[in-house]
Amino acid sequence: MRIATWNVNSITVRLERLLSWLERSGTDVLCLQELKCGPEAFPAEPLRAAGYEAALHASGRWNGVAVLSRVGLEAVTTGLPGAPEYEGVVEPRAVGATCGGVRVWSVYVPNGREVDHPHYAYKLRWLEALRETAAAEAAGGAPFAVLGDFNVAPRDEDVWDRAAFEGATHVTAAERAALDALRETGLSEVMPRALKYDVPFTYWDYRQLCFPKNRGMRIDLVFGNAPFTAAVKDAYVDREERKGKGASDHAPVVVDLAG
DNA sequence: ATGACTTGGTTACCAAGA
User: Fold this and answer.
1) Which residues lie closer than 8 Å to A89 by C-beta, 6 or more apart?
2) Which nucleotides of B are covered by protein (CB under 7 A)?
3) Is the whole-model pTM more than 0.90?
């Protein structure tokens, strides 16, 4: 089974690329983030025609997540239990589903903006809610994974220049501690191969030729429990999808499971 | 040079992304 996660930065703009990539990659289950559409604008019909059911959590202009599956889609959970509010709103940033016997969550962790911004405290609260859900679901013998845009670089080498991130979000001790707390629920990270260069970055800013210069970040992550990671045969970042006109600023992370 | 793209919406500018 091939499982992937991809922040598409608008499913409306990316639809033709998405359909093309699904066919080319042969992905069975895809976790999507930043749909940037409401449920009325979600392209359920073209995806169904391509063979994919969808579990959706979306509300409009910002955020929005989905799980696409062509191997079954059951036990959908819309939203993270206990998710915190931001400015009075619980944003659509998580959706869970069981696909072909594998329990997956597609997550879009809040950006945080600046370390002294309320969005940063919200990010840490949101990661704590994710930890609680993982603690409730990761135990047991069934494969379980959380995949998505975490907006956290786990290690210093996961950003193109550590000095450029001094004082910035995505690299702070508190954010990395939140990932450590997630690991303590029994999850470990599935480290993808890089198809070029040494570190498998997953995001490159649109500006300043960041992609050609490989000024990237590794912030799209996969955490699985032991039954999930034991089944992993291969994992890589498909940086080819970041190329060309009309690309998302994130590349898909692909995981191949035995069976 | 406190910006350099891209996206969708309170559109001919703005917020947000990271």
Assistant:
1) none
2) 4-10, 16-18
3) yes
